[in-house]
Amino acid sequence: MFRPEDLRLVESVQKGLKSRGYRGQGRIMADSSGSGISEHGIAHFHNLLAQVFKD
């Protein structure tokens, strides 16, 4: 559920999901080469949190 003031944001996200640049792989950018522009640290942190809350 969203509020009327969120409509522009929601529409923007939906438009982005349909763009050619989005590949449907999630919210974290992590490439296999581990380049400096990826977010491996954030992905690792999220995985740690998931393990903590899973237990």
UniProtKB/TrEMBL annotation:
<dbReference type="GO" id="GO:0005506">
    <property type="term" value="F:iron ion binding"/>
</dbReference>
<dbReference type="InterPro" id="IPR015879">
    <property type="entry name" value="Ring_hydroxy_dOase_asu_C_dom"/>
</dbReference>
<protein>
    <submittedName>
        <fullName>Putative oxidoreductase</fullName>
    </submittedName>
</protein>
<feature type="domain" description="Aromatic-ring-hydroxylating dioxygenase alpha subunit C-terminal">
    <location>
        <begin position="4"/>
        <end position="52"/>
    </location>
</feature>
<dbReference type="GO" id="GO:0051537">
    <property type="term" value="F:2 iron, 2 sulfur cluster binding"/>
</dbReference>
<dbReference type="Pfam" id="PF00848">
    <property type="entry name" value="Ring_hydroxyl_A"/>
</dbReference>
